[in-house]
Design a protein that fits this description.
Radius of gyration: 36 Å
Strand order of the largest sheet: 3-6-5-4-7
Helix content: 10-25%
Oligomer: single chain
Largest sheet: 5 strands, antiparallel
Number of strands: 7
Structural class: alpha+beta
Strand content: 15-25%
Number of helices: 3
Shape: rod-shaped
């Protein structure tokens, strides 16, 4: 069979309309492939470069302000470098034993700015510059106040010139300690919980004098009152 015979056979099997349709299909297929390739290249160019994966320390569950981080509270997660916040910790040992300066949620990245310096205690870590944490014995019933409340402290001094002074106004409660032990033999001793207050040095001196020489009474301010010692703290239950 010569070449002309084969060509004639192909011509009989592939009519002109079929050959035209095949050619158009081939051209359209090549064109679609080119369009898809160009579109994918454009997507790649527009996609931001988030950087290589990086291991960072995250909270396993919600943690409140003032909480001391334990090993079980944190874990390592892998995130693109581009979304990792500045100062993120990269080892769980860097977080364990340190106090949180602000509350965080589960899967939040722990950063150096969110943690108190190593060795800082749970109270010292929460005291901002310029203020002091002062413990005041109260006569309030358990559960009456919690961290974040604001109070006024009034002191009555006896003697020939008995009078009452305002020792602190609008002081914020940083923490509520355990109620004083029962069975005290001191006459007039207060039996309520001890309150840790955030105050300036002058007010701290007034409270120290009041505790030594006067009788203290606590007044709880309503939530809308803005005290002179206002400082944001996260609520915590009494005795925490």
């Amino acid at each position: 069979m010569d070449l002309s015979t084969v060509v004639d056979a192909l011509r009989r099997k592939w009519p002109m309309s079929a050959r035209i349709f095949f050619a158009l299909s081939l051209v359209l297929g090549i064109g679609a492939l080119g369009l898809m390739s160009g579109y994918r290249s454009r997507i790649e160019r527009l996609r931001p470069d988030l950087g290589p994966p990086t291991s960072v320390v995250v909270a396993v569950h919600d943690l409140g302000r003032g909480a001391m981080v334990a090993d079980a509270d944190v874990a390592l997660r892998t995130l693109p470098l581009g979304v990792v916040p500045k100062g993120a910790l990269t080892a769980t040992a860097d977080a364990a034993g340190r106090v949180l300066l602000a509350g965080i949620g589960a899967d939040d990245v722990l950063t150096s700015l969110r943690l108190a310096p190593k060795g800082a205690g749970p109270l010292a870590a929460l005291v901002p510059p310029g203020l002091l944490a002062v413990v005041v014995q109260s006569d309030l019933p358990p559960g009456a106040v919690r961290a974040g409340d604001r109070i006024d402290v009034f002191t009555t001094f006896g003697g020939a010139h008995a009078h009452t002074e305002t020792s602190a106004s609008g002081a914020q409660v940083l923490s509520v300690l355990a109620t004083a032990a029962a069975g005290s033999t001191d006459i007039g001793a207060l039996a309520g919980p001890q309150l840790v207050l955030l105050v300036d040095p002058t007010t701290a001196s007034s409270l120290a004098y009041a505790g030594a020489f006067g009788h203290i009474a606590i007044a709880v301010d309503p939530p809308e009152v803005t005290g002179s010692q206002e400082f944001a703290v996260s609520p915590s239950p009494v005795g925490s």
